[in-house]
Amino acid sequence: MERGEAGSPPVAEEKAGEGEDDFGYRLFPDRNKKPQSFLVRNLLTFHNKCQLMLRMTLDTNPYAQLLLEAMKQSGCTVFNDRHFSCENCDGCVSGGFDAATSQIVLCQNNIHQQSHMNRVVTHELIHAFDHCRAHVDWFKNVKHLACSEIRAANLSGDCTLMNEIARFKFGLKGHHQTCVRDRAIRSILAVRKVSKETAEKAVDEVFDACFNDLEPFGRIPHSKTDAKRAFRDFQNRARYNANL
């Protein structure tokens, strides 16, 4: 289970002594419960709101639209009812990608604004895109996880200037790269029982290659305007390749 946006992860020293790694599933308790009926789910306010915000994201957000199109062209068509699940989660997480089921989990108790939903869906769709296009060993290879977390933080809008200001984090030269590195490390620590040093080493070893892997956007989309341009460029690229 890969983490989306979260608060401070558990302390690495505490995690290391907890025994066998649960791959972050403890943060998503509904994963192990029997699914509720359609009627019960839709009587829950959080679930209804989550579904409505998800639909708005998939229909209107250029980040999500580009990723959905890219996955479709890679042979991994995403279906709303099959590949997204609104669930209650631990208070520190907003979403995750469950590689075992190829499903994106959206934390209906922690996502309350459309802008937040947009960012979480984009972040997790980047993990899903990586899962589709590459043989990612999510559970045993921490470098693979680090690479996808770097890409998700870099391309999803997690580290935009406005988001960093909202976190009271300011910087000048290289601040975007610092934000991406820090958030990738935090994500690894939240879902893997490894030391901070191990997470930092994995991120540092793959950082340059993964930070510069901008697929399918072709650029770092710092705003919705950038994302719209990237989506348009991707559509044009797809049309060109179809005519070859």
Automatic annotation (TrEMBL):
Tell me the InterPro entries matching this sequence.
Peptidase_M76_ATP23
GO cellular component annotations, sorted alphabetically? mitochondrion
Q: Which UniProt keywords apply?
A: Hydrolase, Metal-binding, Metalloprotease, Protease
Keyword check for Metal-binding: yes
Q: Which GO terms describe its molecular function?
A: metal ion binding; metalloendopeptidase activity
Give the superkingdom in one word.
Answer: Eukaryota
Gene Ontology process terms (BP): mitochondrial protein processing; mitochondrial proton-transporting ATP synthase complex assembly
Q: What's the name of the protein?
A: Mitochondrial inner membrane protease ATP23
Q: What is its EC number?
A: 3.4.24.-
Q: Region Disordered: list its residue ranges.
A: 1-23
> So what family is this one in?
Belongs to the peptidase M76 family.
Origin species: Indicator maculatus (spotted honeyguide)
Q: Which Pfam families match?
A: Peptidase_M76
